[in-house]
Amino acid sequence: LPIPQFAIESQVKFHNLDPATSIIELNPRPNEYHLRTEDILAAIEKDGDEIALVLFSGIQYYTGQFFELEKIATAAHAKGCVVGYDLAHAVGNVPLKLHEWGVDFACWCTYKYLNSGPGGIGGAFVHEKHAGKDLTRFTGWWGTDPSTKFEMDNKFRPIPSAASFRVSNPSVLTTVALHGSLEPFRHATPPALRAKSLLLTAYLEKLLAPLSGFTILTPTDPAQRGAQLSLLFHGDGVMMKVFHSIAAQGIVCDERKPDVIRLAPAPLYNTFADVWRAVEALAAALK
């Protein structure tokens, strides 16, 4: 995904380093769609002594693969690396135990599974083991101790939490929108949502199985995926034809050119009837 790639490359350049020689990118093995955990751990073991930061997505946006984040964090810390995760497609979707796993930091958007709306406020996690440390950071008014910020002595006193990394005040409107979205999550509870999600996506997978004309890129192991199934369509132009056809029938999904449609039944509000309707529409579009 270009967005985090841009952020990473710009950080590397900010430190006067060359992205071509300072970033290690991993790819699946030939003719495979997913990164094997063993290959990720092998890369950390091989180059870990020279790696400052191991940065991974929680869920791979294109294939829907849910990485084994705890194993990656353990291996990276064993080599002295800092561990950070991009959880844009994971938060609100799969179980996350960042503190328990010892993850150093993570960040995410809230407009996907957390339903905050376009332009919604982002989120960040910083492990409490870093609280009180004199970490290099871009400091701002909203990261300093609120009890002393009006003393105007020009001394930054970091709040002993992730809040110390805030630079400016968050938008009230986007914060309230997120709060309104999180209330249903609190009442539904993450374990119950995950249990329903596993059933919804398994049902989607079962209904798709008899159909042809595409390959499901997402892992078949429920523990290695969230709500999403990514369908790789065969043949030039087929994907967009199918996408427009099912969209015309009220099925909201997502296309990634040239050939992939992502279907993600969200357990907070999608039903098994929604899944059945989506597959019926897709089957009709393929005829």
TrEMBL record:
Pfam family name, one: KYNU_C
Gene Ontology biological-process entries: anthranilate metabolic process; L-tryptophan catabolic process to kynurenine; NAD+ biosynthetic process
Molecular-function annotations in GO: kynureninase activity; pyridoxal phosphate binding; transferase activity
Keywords per UniProt: Hydrolase, Pyridine nucleotide biosynthesis, Pyridoxal phosphate, Transferase
InterPro entries (alphabetical): Kynureninase (IPR010111), PyrdxlP-dep_Trfase (IPR015424), PyrdxlP-dep_Trfase_major (IPR015421), PyrdxlP-dep_Trfase_small (IPR015422)
SUPFAM superfamilies referenced in this protein's UniProt entry, alphabetically: PLP-dependent transferases
Gene3D superfamilies to which the protein is assigned, alphabetical: Aspartate Aminotransferase, domain 1 (3.90.1150.10), Type I PLP-dependent aspartate aminotransferase-like (Major domain) (3.40.640.10)
A GO cellular component entry from the record: cytoplasm
PANTHER family (alphabetical): KYNURENINASE
Protein name: Pyridoxal phosphate-dependent transferase
